[in-house]
Amino acid sequence: MAVVEIYTKQFCPFCWRALDLLSSKDIEIEEIAIDGGGPKRELMIERANGRSTVPQIFIRGEHVGGCSELVRLEQEGRLDALLKGGR
C-alpha cells in the first residue's frame, strides 16, 4: 500500500475528515503539522503548486489535492486503486 503524506492544522475540520477517511484504509499515513507555518508550510505550498489551504494530500509523492478531491476519489471508487498503485 501507498505512503500518504497529509499536511494538516490541528483545528481544521477538513483535515479531520481526510484523516478519518485515510485511517479507514490499510495504509501508512505521514501527517505533517504546519500550524506554526515556517519551512514545512512553504514546502507544502511549493509541492501543491501554490495551494496554501489544508489539508494537502500526496500519494506516493503525487499531489491529489485536498479533502474534497480525496472524498471525490473515494466516491468514484478510485481511491483504493490509487493507493494500491493504479489510477
Terminal CA distance: 13 Å
Put simply, the count of helices is: 4
SSE order, one letter for each helix or strand = EHEHEEHH
> Which percent bin holds the helix content?
40-55%
CATH topology: Glutaredoxin
Write the layout of secondary structure elements.
Layout lengths: L2 E6 L4 H11 L4 E6 L4 H10 L8 E4 L2 E4 L1 H9 L3 H5 L4
Parallel strand pairs: 1-2
Antiparallel strand pairs: 1-3, 3-4
Helix pairs in contact: 1-3
Question: What do you see in this structure?
Answer:
- The chain has a single domain, classed as Glutaredoxin (3-Layer(aba) Sandwich), CATH 3.40.30.10.
- Helix 1 links the parallel strand 1 and strand 2.
- The protein is globular and about 35 Å long.
- Strands 2-1-3-4 form a four-stranded mixed sheet, with helices on both faces.
- The longest helix is centred in the first third of the chain and has 11 residues.
- The protein is an alpha+beta fold.
